[in-house]
Structure to design on (585 residues):
């Protein structure tokens, strides 16, 4: 009996300790020291973030920013709520899923104006000009991730059933694509696309990219998020953070800052060759600022609404969340 | 034994969920961070069938993998029990090789064998095999002095008899080791599925992780726990039956 009481007391003490710890984390958010959780590793997709940090743009605005890499097991929105981070990068599907479950998250900037997610294929083996060309192909998708939703949307638009294609479960290892087991492989065109495409091109294999945007599917990718509480209690910090971050992106993408931008990424991404990083930077420019008139960080309301509609259509969320209400375009201005 | 195992697991699971709920409501967290009981229940209802099928798939691989590793561990353990140079070489090799983290080797296996059944089986068997081998080696190398001395003195000792004596005298230990290794086989299979396979409950957990769906993960963990409890209970039951049958035969 005494033993079970001790165990129960221990369990209660453990819960109290965790709750107190998380409370303390939340309280720490009131400082100008903020943590920024990326969606993926520190690579060219984060060049503006790293540039802002390296050039001291955050410090100029009185912010002490720590940039932490992301990964499949990291979820910026969850960390915002737990107080482990004050800002983060998330894709639209993550934001919409979180809103559907009551997470108090808002979007303060949209980093990628064009979704870099495209499918690479060998042009000497197949040709994908129209959606019906997908019929009979083996299509790589990461089940559970946004590329699955995008591909299913494309297939639905072309009225292609699951039986008419073969969906292949994709991981980080590209061997099935190199071996020719898979016809189309999802890549981030500005990072993996450059690397894989370059490797194939150097061995004399021409590659093509299948872009969902060309077929009318617009699905928002990396965006900057923070908590609703942060925006209400510390609007200055949020504004300063967004402004410093976007300055970083603007400067990093300038042609005359090319080598500085590559250097900012290179200190973390040591495995990629210099020429690969330079090509990646070029590819990133066309995603973050597709036209000279595009505003870096601008939130594309129509694309967000379309993303929500696609998710509803594929039953990724049970009911509408009206994502437009949670987009704070004013922070970008 | 079996109902007690299931009940114990159920109790632990409920305690863990209650703890999560306490954190959720203590901090006012949304269902996105920690799912509430209602969402958990809804997810259980919608995913139970699919996850049970996935868990059965995983369990099949784990059972075959465990069987393979038991056979191999006993074969090597019996061979390595002797105090010869080869016996001690096998022991040293087993101790050294088991120090390698199989999880680190797993991606190489997937690259070479693809992400089908055999990769999962091999990883499950490897994760399960080495701890099992060390236990079997330990048990089989330990002489049962009194009994073995009798047979040696009477000149009737053969290696088969030696193995039987040591296995019989350590039946409880062996049963516990075999039942315990089922956890390793299951964990090995799940790890393999999580890393690169395209089937099984580990793969489903991976997909749920991509969707940031903790409710699905908690439901999957529940099903894994129940499946494993049943399997371990059955193994212990089989161990008990084997011992009783053996005792009966010896007595007769």
């Amino acid at each position: 009996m005494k033993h079970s009481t001790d165990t129960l007391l221990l369990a209660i003490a453990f819960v109290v300790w965790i709750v107190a710890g998380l409370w303390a984390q939340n309280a720490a958010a009131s400082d100008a020291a903020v943590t920024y959780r990326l969606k993926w590793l520190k690579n060219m997709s984060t060049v503006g973030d790293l540039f802002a940090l390296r050039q001291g743009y955050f410090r100029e605005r009185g912010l002490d920013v720590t940039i932490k890499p992301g990964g499949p097991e990291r979820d910026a929105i969850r960390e915002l709520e737990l107080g482990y981070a004050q800002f983060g990068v998330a894709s639209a599907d993550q934001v919409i899923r979180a809103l559907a479950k009551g997470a108090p998250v808002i979007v303060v900037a949209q980093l990628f104006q064009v979704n870099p997610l495209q499918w690479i294929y060998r042009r000497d083996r197949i040709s994908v000009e129209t959606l019906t060309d997908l019929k009979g192909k083996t299509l790589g998708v990461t089940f559970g991730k946004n590329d699955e939703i995008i591909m299913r949307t494309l297939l639905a638009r072309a009225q292609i059933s699951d039986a008419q294609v073969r969906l292949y479960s994709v991981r980080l290892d590209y061997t099935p694509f190199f071996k020719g087991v898979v016809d189309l492989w999802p890549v981030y065109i500005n990072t993996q696309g450059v690397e894989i495409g370059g490797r194939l091109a150097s061995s004399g294999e021409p590659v093509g990219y299948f872009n969902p945007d060309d077929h009318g599917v617009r699905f928002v990718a990396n965006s900057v998020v923070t908590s609703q509480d942060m925006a209400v209690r510390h609007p200055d910090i949020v504004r300063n953070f967004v402004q410093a971050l976007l300055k970083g992106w603007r400067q990093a993408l300038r042609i005359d800052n090319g080598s500085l931008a590559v250097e900012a990424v290179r200190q973390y991404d040591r495995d990629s060759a210099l020429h690969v990083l330079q090509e990646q930077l070029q590819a990133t420019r066309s995603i973050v600022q597709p036209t000279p008139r595009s505003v870096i960080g601008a939130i594309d309301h129509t694309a967000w609404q379309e993303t929500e509609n696609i998710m509803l259509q594929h039953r990724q969320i049970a009911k509408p969340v009206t994502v437009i209400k949670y987009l704070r375009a004013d922070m970008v201005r | 034994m079996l109902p007690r195992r299931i009940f114990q697991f159920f109790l632990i699971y409920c305690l863990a969920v209650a703890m999560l709920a306490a954190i959720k409501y203590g901090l006012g967290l949304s269902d996105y961070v920690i799912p509430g009981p209602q969402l958990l229940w809804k997810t259980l209802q919608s995913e139970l069938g699919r996850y049970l099928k996935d868990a059965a798939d995983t369990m099949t691989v784990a059972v075959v993998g465990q069987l393979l590793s038991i056979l191999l561990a006993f074969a090597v353990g019996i061979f390595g029990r002797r105090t010869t140079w080869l016996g001690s070489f096998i022991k040293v090799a087993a101790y050294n090789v088991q120090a390698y983290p199989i999880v680190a080797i797993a991606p190489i296996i997937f690259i070479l064998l693809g992400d089908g059944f055999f990769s999962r089986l091999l990883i499950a068997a490897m994760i399960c095999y080495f701890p099992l081998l060390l236990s079997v080696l330990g048990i089989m190398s330990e002489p049962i002095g009194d009994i073995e001395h009798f047979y040696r003195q009477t000149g009737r000792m053969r290696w088969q008899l030696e193995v039987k004596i040591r296995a019989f005298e350590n039946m409880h230990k062996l049963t516990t080791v075999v039942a315990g290794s089922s956890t390793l086989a299951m964990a090995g299979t799940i790890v393999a599925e999580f890393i690169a396979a395209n089937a099984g409950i580990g793969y489903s957990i991976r997909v749920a992780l991509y969707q940031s769906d903790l409710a699905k993960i908690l439901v999957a963990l529940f099903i894994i726990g129940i499946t494993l409890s049943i399997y371990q209970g059955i193994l212990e039951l089989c161990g008990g039956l084997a011992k009783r049958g053996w005792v009966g035969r010896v007595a007769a």
User: Anything to note?
Assistant: The longest strand of chain A covers residues 105-110. Chain A has 13 helices and ten strands. The interface with chain B takes residues 11, 14-15, 18-19, 22-23, 26, 72-73, 75, 77-78, 81-82, 94, 97-98, 101-104, 142-145, 169, 171, 173, 175, 316 of chain A (CB under 8 Å). Chain A has a mean pLDDT of 90.
